[in-house]
Please model this.
Amino acid sequence: MGLNSSNERVKQVLIVNLSIMKTLSCRDAGCTCDYDAKGETEGDVLRDAAQHGMKEHEKKGNDMTQIRDNLKASIRTS
Ligand SMILES: [Zn+2]
Model:
């Protein structure tokens, strides 16, 4: 069973367990969808959220910059 795991997979599991994930739910940002932006740092989460906002909610880069502080305040660490 476990013997079939490749080193690569073991490494990934270790990384996931060691890192603290930050999440930002799109709903907390005022939208109605269930998307969760995730990342290891605030910057990663905000980048993910910005990409999602621009792609799915037709936000502009400027819009995302304006609400950046609000988004930051809504980030949860798990
Ligand atoms: Zn969304």
Observations:
- Residues 26, 31, 33, 35, 52, 56-57 surround zinc ion (CB under 6 Å).
- Residues 2-77 form one domain.
- The CA atoms of residues 22 and 41 lie 7 Å apart.
- The chain is about 50% helix and 15% strand.
